[in-house]
């Protein structure tokens, strides 16, 4: 471990500063927003939305995950997973105080981690995070950033316009029978949510066809398509719904569900009637292409009210 | 629809007879046991165990599902799915009153059903069964048999020796960390059981890696192997447990979970440490080969106490 990453060690930001940062309002963004970018297009959608609101952004793409071609359109600094010290130094130089963590990040192996000095000091916390479910991993990483003096904010907080709205998106609508499947699906996800798993499931005709765990939504949808093809699921086309929700009581700053044009393509191949998500708590990637794809495929997409929304 | 199947219509057995049959004890089997056979080896294991207890059996293999070569060792009559009238006539001729439904039966398509007169009269019940989850399908089919004057008994009731015993099976044992995963897995299955889904899941290091729905246990285990290979799950080999349980409050006469030598092979390829099931409520196919395979693969197999057992 070399010295450079420890130039601004995490404890250089004192408690008083941290408290002041915590109470800063998102509505008055005087500092550029730091965006730690995993894979996919969503980090750039967040960056664009934040810039449209008049706030500057600095990207911190994760080496091996973020799209190298796309980062060129923004100020950026590459970091490796585990380089909290390097991140803290660069983000401080850029004047960032708020940080968004967004994009895909399949649980990295220990050998993929580039641990630096700033991270090493928090190793016990990180090791604990690695032991639990995904929630623990992400919120553990979040705590490491917060311990370094940054405030973690949710993508849905800095750019609510990138989340699914309440009601139908596009021109198709679920019928009453599908509404029942949607209710059943969300109830199932709620029942499982204390197990830190299951942000998605497929229900058709009251029957649960698939539940997502470590494989992810894409693989789950592909499984439905394969089971239909093999005759293991015998249903007419255009039946069934993908339900997707944030886990209950989860810190939404770390792992909001997302859907995009590719979700439509896979749901279509799975023979589903549509997709139901939680309004305001689901990121829609490339919304224009997404809605066009849904309309063309004949799939409904509907945002249901958030059961955890504050009144 | 032709007449022959209606020779002994379902209502030929009156209520008085049915009540008398229902109170007959399994311990005094004066009549041969009818075994409606789906796919796999388990129907024959049940037949052999029942014969060893001194009771005669008559097999009713389901065309398209049952193993045609294996039925030759027993008295048998082929039937098609949906031919309740034909079954009732033949079973009455054979003097059967108790019937076991056992073996694999992937939800058949409507066009695979050979509906006969005895079945047609109960079509509304069958259609209702087809709409719900698997429980509804199987218990619906069971009610059709019972309406025809037969008593449905569970394979675990007529041949308890074919189910997993309490404690370890074979020579390997789960360690304390795996015990926690087992507890977590059974708690997850219990939480999902009101949704008529999820008789199995894979847990490793407190993390839920996969949950079974329509794809079945084999496909779920193969998914774990594929995710490990693709680097989506990063765990050393020999970590994680397959938990399998009957759904809560389900009528166990219809769909008891089963494990066999093939389960060991797939769990081994998935890199798991072992398998946990509910004692007395899980059928073990080919127990000799099963235990040898587990010992050779280094996998533990453990039967946990039945949370629904009557004291």
Task: Tell me about this structure.
With 311 residues, the first copy, chain A, is α/β, with parallel strands linked by helices. Helix content of chain A is 36%, strand content 15%. The first copy, chain A, contains eleven helices and twelve strands. In chain A, the strands form three sheets. In chain A, strands 5-12-10-8-6-7 form a six-stranded mixed sheet, with helices on both faces. In chain A, α9 (216-229) packs parallel to α10 (261-269) and α10 runs parallel beside α11.
Give the SSE map.
The structure is a homodimer of 311-residue chains.
Chain A: H1 15-22, E1 33-37, H2 42-52, E2 57-61, H3 84-94, E3 98-102, H4 117-120, H5 123-131, H6 134-147, E4 151-152, H7 155-158, E5 167-168, H8 176-192, E6 200-204, E7 207-211, H9 216-229, E8 241-244, E9 258-259, H10 261-269, E10 274-278, E11 283-284, H11 287-297, E12 300-304
């Amino acid at each position: 471990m070399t010295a450079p990453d420890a130039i601004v060690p995490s404890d250089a930001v004192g408690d008083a500063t941290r408290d002041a940062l915590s109470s800063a309002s998102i509505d008055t963004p005087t500092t550029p927003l730091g965006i730690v970018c995993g894979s996919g297009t969503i980090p750039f959608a967040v960056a664009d939305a934040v810039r449209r609101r008049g706030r500057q952004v600095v990207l911190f793409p994760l080496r091996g995950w973020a799209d190298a071609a796309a980062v060129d359109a923004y100020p950026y600094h590459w970091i490796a997973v585990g380089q909290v010290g390097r991140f803290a130094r660069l983000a401080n130089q850029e004047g960032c105080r708020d940080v968004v963590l967004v994009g895909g990040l399949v649980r990295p192996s220990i050998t993929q981690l580039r641990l630096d000095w700033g991270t090493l000091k928090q190793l016990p916390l990180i090791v604990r995070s690695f032991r639990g479910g995904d929630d623990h991993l992400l919120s553990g990483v979040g705590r490491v950033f917060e311990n370094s003096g940054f405030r973690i904010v949710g993508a849905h907080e800095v750019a609510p316009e990138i989340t699914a709205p309440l009601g139908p998106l596009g021109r198709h609508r679920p019928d009453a029978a599908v509404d029942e499947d949607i209710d059943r699906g969300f109830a199932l996800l709620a029942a499982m949510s204390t197990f830190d798993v299951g942000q998605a499931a497929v229900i058709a005709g009251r029957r649960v066809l698939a539940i997502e765990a470590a494989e992810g939504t894409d693989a789950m949808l592909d499984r439905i398509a394969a089971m239909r093809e093999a005759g293991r699921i015998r249903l007419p086309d255009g039946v069934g719904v993908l339900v997707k929700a944030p886990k209950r009581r989860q810190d939404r700053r770390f792992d909001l569900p997302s859907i995009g044009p590719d979700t439509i393509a896979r749901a279509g191949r799975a023979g589903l009637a549509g997709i139901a998500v939680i309004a305001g708590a689901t990121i829609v990637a490339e919304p224009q292409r997404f809605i066009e794809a849904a309309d063309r495929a004949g799939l409904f997409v509907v945002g249901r009210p958030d059961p955890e929304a504050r009144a």
